[in-house]
Design a protein that fits this description.
Two copies of one chain form a homodimer. In chain A, the strands form two sheets. Chain A has a six-stranded parallel sheet with strand order 5-4-1-6-7-8, sandwiched between helices. Chain A has two domains: 155 residues, HAD superfamily/HAD-like (Rossmann fold, 3-Layer(aba) Sandwich), CATH 3.40.50; 83 residues, DNA polymerase, domain 1, CATH 1.10.150. Helices cover 48% and strands 12% of the residues of chain A. In chain A, helix 10 links the parallel strand 6 and strand 7. The first copy, chain A, has eleven helices and eight strands. The interface between A and B is medium-sized, with 21 and 20 residues.
């Protein structure tokens, strides 16, 4: 791998969970809304269910049961269902839109900004998320994420882990797949990128689903494994020497 | 316009000529290559002809006479013709590729980086160029251009001034066309963006084609006109007050 890693020109990052902590951010958004509107529910459950709706919603698009729509639209579909389920009434359209756009205001993991700044000196750093371009652009401004380029599944009208997403990203960057390393907290994302020729780095985020549901993930033998983005920068710098 | 301008959320920028000085950059790339390889030609003429081939090449793609290809590929097509015309022989594939990628290493106008940094505090700043994503991303890293988002005609497989390019950019940013201001040195680009509802700012770059062919352009009455990007930031800040 030593040799393969020296070819890397760009790092593409999964975003939800890998770069930003959606769980605590969405819980905080919910609690803020709850305080303002006197809504007393379990916002941790709300956040987890919102996120749990995301995979099945994308699958419906993937199978053609829903017409193409971006993640903002899918988040809103799921939100409407959750508002019913949690018996939340009386929110204005502006309130709902603001809550839905909470996904544009996710907070980075503590190492994310400093790690990306280091990695960016040596590599192109780009998103490669199922989040739509507007969401990722607004989030980058909100969170100070120093991307060189915002790439999204939206550009292909597919969702990860469909191969088109990874193939198109490499082509748009003008690179061969093996010049790109996918960085993600989720083995499925890494496997799918690897299937089209990407190199892979696993950055486990055990707190992705909150402190009461710590998850472990298993790396593939070919993955570089790093505990956070600064450790990833260290590992890649060692490789260069 | 006062009221319309207060709606602006994003500025999209033409790049070649508006943000970067392709003329002097390409002349310098040519001269450097000429010094190394003992090629004594008029690199200013070479640069102007290379650029002059660009519009007709895009038109061929637009009319379906050439299959879709990005600007890197079109630049290379034109380059091969120019190498014949200027009787330049003996360049390796690596030399030609390096010269062709000179378009990834264009230098910004002196006000561009500082102006963009100011504008970026208030607005999303994005490219909206016929240049491909890889070219624009590499150029941003080379030149220190602080884009929030790299948007390109490449994403639509159309070229400006086709309306699809502007419409898609607004949609990807999650904005209505009238929330976006197109910034360009070229009235044709502004008119086409205005036709789909964009607001427009003309930043004339009289030296775009070099000091011996200063060009004047005429603004449309609805255009904001600014002499450079800092003047544009001043004008938009005044509007906010």
């Amino acid at each position: 791998m030593q040799n393969a890693r020296s070819k890397i020109k760009a790092l593409t990052f999964d975003v939800f969970g890998t770069v930003v902590d959606w769980y605590s951010s969405i819980v905080a958004e919910g609690e803020k809304l709850g305080d303002t509107h006197g809504i007393d529910i379990d916002w941790a459950q709300f956040a987890l269910k919102w996120r749990a709706g995301y995979g099945p919603a994308m699958d419906k698009v993937r199978r053609g049961e829903l017409p193409w729509q971006n993640i903002d639209a899918l988040h809103r579909l799921i939100l409407e269902r959750l508002l019913d389920e949690f018996k939340i009434v009386g929110l204005s359209e502006a309130d709902k839109d603001h809550l839905n756009r909470g996904w544009h205001r996710l907070k980075p993991w503590p190492d994310a900004v400093s790690g990306l700044k280091r990695l960016r000196k040596r590599y192109i750093v780009a998103t490669l998320s199922n989040g739509n371009i507007a969401l990722l652009t607004n989030m980058a401004k909100f969170a100070g994420l120093p991307w060189d380029c915002i790439l999204s599944a939206e550009l292909t009208r597919h969702y990860k882990p469909d191969p088109e997403v990874y193939e198109t990203a490499a082509a748009l960057l003008g690179l061969s797949p093996n010049e790109v390393m996918m960085v993600a907290a989720h083995p499925g994302d890494l496997r799918a990128s690897q299937a089209v020729g990407f190199q892979t780095a696993l950055v486990p985020r055990p707190l992705e689903y909150g402190p009461s549901s710590v998850r472990e993930v298993n790396a593939h033998p070919s993955d570089l494994v790093a505990t956070d983005f600064n450790a990833l920068a260290n590992a890649l710098e060692r490789n260069e020497k």
